Amino acid sequence: QKGAYKHFMLKEILEQPEALRNTMRGRIRLGGASPPEIRFGGLEPLMERLASARRLVFCACGTSWHAALVGEYLIEQLAGVNVEVEYASEFRYRNPILARTDGCEDIVVVISQSGETADTLAAAQFARKKGILAIGICNVVGSSIARETDAGIYLHAGPEIGVASTKAFTAQITCLAMLALKLGRYRGAISEEQFEEHVTALLSLPAKMAEIFAQSDKIYEMSRVYRYAHNFLYLGRGYNFPVALEGALKLKEISYIHAEGYAAAEMKHGPIALIDRFMPVVVIAPTSDATYEKLRSNIQEVLARGGSVIAITESDNDDLDAECEYVIKIPKVADFLSPILAVVPLQLLSYHIADMRGCNVDQPRNLAKSVTVE
Ligand code: F6R
């Protein structure tokens, strides 16, 4: 039930702090006499195989594919395990090279909110047919992917009714961050102290996310200003490059405004030609990002061409206030957790724009919640 909310999508955006708590509940042990720990019931017997895998191959579609891209950065950075991300639809049609050697195997990880996406399910079935271990990360309990994988993790984000995925995305990244930390600790890539610090940061996310909602009025006002734009560009780097893709997808699917997400440095290889005063550019620029100064130069390049910039940065950063049209501030958090917060204002921006344009927010045209056909 959507209760007092106008749309399921809005309800689900605002439910995210609770969804994240539920994703982490019972899986994190911190404090007390024993060392800190993250546990995933279904994966415990597989930890040695996961930690020594040659590659983890993530297969997914749409928003889940964006979460997988964040997962690639997380697991490579924090655990030192090689990850590749594939569109599920491409993976199974191109005879991928998959290793089965003990101690040096490829493991397929399929990610899906519904657990019913035809291509993602088929990617898991394809892997298993080839003797490859397939792990599922899904939200819907008892879904086809949950049943047809060797092991898995449930998101526990609660039912997602709005067609545009919101809380499942942040729950997916939370799960992947937990998996990255667990693998990192298991492999000795992070020390116990670092692990404890990162887990503490993870646990602080729900409260920090709730702080973003305090800026709802500003995001609403900004949405009013940009609601008639025909095109949007979203830029981000590192952990937030997939967030740029996700912000653009959210806007396209529910407001029908054309939007493109880019790795910011790619802007000068083409999209910069599009920039004029009618082109809003959303730049995800947290100072925790190692390339923050380069993102600032990108902002200058957009401004020099008359584009208007909406920046997402941390609350203690005033660098961008004078030059950007709008600056949305998110609480400060370690770089690897910033996607979970940075996507929230982008979800709200697309929600408000779609609603102001009179679009059917929860059931956008031509889209279904579960894509069970190819
Ligand atoms: C975007 C969206 C879709 C889904 C995609 C995969 O908001 O909802 O792009 O993310 O169809 O769906 P799942 O995660 O159910 O496999």
Task: Describe the protein's architecture and organization.
- By secondary structure, the chain is an alpha/beta fold.
- The chain is built from 14 helices and twelve strands.
- It has helices spanning 8-14, 16-24, 47-52, 62-79, 88-91, 118-129, 144-147, 167-186, 192-203, 205-212, 216-226, 241-255, 292-304, 338-356, and strands spanning 28-29, 37-38, 55-60, 83-87, 106-112, 134-138, 151-154, 231-236, 258-263, 280-284, 308-314, 326-330.
- The strands form three sheets. The chain has a five-stranded parallel beta sheet with strand order 4-3-5-6-7, sandwiched between helices. Strands 9-8-10-11-12 form a five-stranded parallel beta sheet, with helices on both faces.
- β1 (28-29) and β2 (37-38) form a beta hairpin.
- α2 packs parallel to α8 (167-186), α8 runs antiparallel to α9 and α10 (205-212) runs parallel beside α14 (338-356).
- The protein is globular and about 55 Å long.
- The mean pLDDT is 95.
- Fructose -6-phosphate (F6R) binds next to α4 and α12.
- The site of fructose -6-phosphate has 16 residues, from α4 and α12.
- Residues 46-189, 222-364 form the SIS domain.
- GO terms for molecular function: carbohydrate derivative binding; glutamine-fructose-6-phosphate transaminase (isomerizing) activity.
- Its EC number is 2.6.1.16.
- Its main location: cytoplasm.
